[in-house]
Specification:
Mean pLDDT: 92
Shape: globular
Helix content: 40-55%
Distance between the termini: 28 Å
Family: Belongs to the RelE toxin family.
CATH superfamily: RelE-like
Organism: Gimesia fumaroli
Number of strands: 5
Order of helices and strands: EHHEEEEH
Largest sheet: 5 strands, mixed
CATH topology: YaeB-like fold
Keywords: Toxin-antitoxin system
Protein name: Toxin
Oligomer: single chain
């Protein structure tokens, strides 16, 4: 089974995403978090799916999900998720 590690900041990102969306629709928030979790499992199994983003950090990859972008690094037998951010944010300030 592939390893999937979320940094503290990535876990906080997921909680923040859920809280923001849940202000208007808890069902939509739950569904998005479920979609994120499913995608993270796929990325852990196939780390090369994401595009390299080495302008921010060597070995960093990203993969979009809706309006959000998952940033991660390959590790032995899986991935480590660095951040999950809204695509409209100034990414260079957050990575």
């Amino acid at each position: 089974m592939p390893r999937l590690i979320l940094t503290r900041q990535a876990r906080e990102d997921v909680l923040s995403i859920w809280a923001y969306i849940a202000q208007h629709d808890t069902t939509a928030a739950d569904k998005l978090v479920q979609r994120i979790n499913e995608l993270l499992k796929k990325l852990a199994a196939h780390p090369g799916m994401g595009a390299l983003q080495e302008q921010y950090r060597e070995g960093l990859r990203c993969f979009p999900i809706g309006k959000y972008v998952i940033f991660y690094e390959s590790i032995e037998n899986g991935i480590q998720v660095i951040r999950i951010l809204h695509g409209a944010r100034r990414l260079e300030d957050l990575l």
